[in-house]
Amino acid sequence: MGNGMPLTRLLSKRELGTLIGLMNASLSCVHEGDLRKMMTDLKNIVPHDFAICGLAGIGKDGDIKSYKTVNVNYPNEWIELYMAKKYNLCDPVFLNNFAKLGLQRWSDTYKITPPPRKFLSDAHDFGLTGGYTFGMKNRTENTNSLFSLSGKSVENHERTSTILENVMPHFHEALIRIANGQENGEMPLVANISAREKEVLTWIKEGKSSWDVSKILNISERTVNYHVGNVMQKLGAVSRLHAVAIAAGSKLIDLD
């Protein structure tokens, strides 16, 4: 599952079980409380002190028109200060999330776009010394998500990046489901995919590259990529891992 090092080399069997459990839990997540619990349980494999997520409505001009937050345990005083001082206008992580989406490590973003010293000082006062932020575009509406994990316990390591790249697309789908008020815990069936496409997607879920899948299925790597492109288009996915999350939520493939 993922774009980096295989999870089997990064996680113990118990940790892998926790990850699969989180992905399965995301399929029945319909309330904010469910999502808060999932993000809290994520600490078992991705240490962090603070977590928050949100969904922004994006206008035609690219500006943020609305923003709904699900705060897990960020300090309320920091959120109030952040809004009062309009740090959203100078926070490079926040701005980069909605401009580029995907996964970003704060320290990397700060090197490219250093934030104001006062912003960093205030953030450090609340223990927000570093972290990761992940964002993804909603496939059916003009809304983008933001998930942030921060604090002194966050580990800046490929392991962290790989886990988040795998699990956050599932959390994104759960957040969209909550925002849309879907009560049945399942994403609507958005497309029919062929048996071969399901087969390819299932192996991608297991962390196989296109080359790996081509050898397993005895087809060319070009054909694998063709199937991947087709299934991403059908599901409205922005990445392979997003396609896995959507397909699992629509019960097109199994996570186990």
Question: Would you give an account of this structure?
Answer:
The protein has 256 residues and is an alpha+beta fold. It has two domains: 173 residues, Transcription factor LuxR-like, autoinducer-binding domain (Beta-Lactamase), CATH 3.30.450; 55 residues, Winged helix-like DNA-binding domain superfamily/Winged helix DNA-binding domain (Arc Repressor Mutant, subunit A), CATH 1.10.10.10. The chain contains twelve helices and five strands. Strands 2-1-5-4-3 form a five-stranded antiparallel beta sheet, sandwiched between helices. The radius of gyration is 18 Å and the shape is globular. The two termini are 12 Å apart.
Keywords, separated by commas or semicolons:
single chain, Arc Repressor Mutant, subunit A, 2 domains, 13% strand, five-stranded antiparallel β-sheet, alpha+beta, globular, 256 residues, Beta-Lactamase
What is the element layout, followed by pairings?
Blueprint (H helix, E strand, L loop, with lengths): L6 H4 L2 H15 L4 H10 L8 E9 L5 E8 L4 H9 L7 H9 L1 E4 H7 L4 H9 L5 E5 L7 E8 L7 H22 L15 H11 L4 H8 L3 H15 L4 H10 L7
Antiparallel strand pairs: 1-2, 1-5, 3-4, 4-5
Helix pairs in contact: 2-3, 2-8, 3-8, 8-12, 9-11, 9-12, 10-11, 11-12
The CATH architecture of the largest domain is 2-Layer Sandwich
- What separation lies between the terminal Cα atoms? 12 Å
Q: Return the CATH class of the largest domain.
A: Alpha Beta
Number of domains: 2
Which percent bin holds the helix content? 40-55%
Question: What is the CATH homologous superfamily assignment of the largest domain?
Answer: Transcription factor LuxR-like, autoinducer-binding domain
By helix and strand content, what is the structural category?
alpha+beta
Overall number of strands: 5
> Biggest sheet, strands in spatial order?
2-1-5-4-3
CATH topology of the largest domain: Beta-Lactamase
Order of helices and strands: HHHEEHHEHHEEHHHHH
Shape: globular
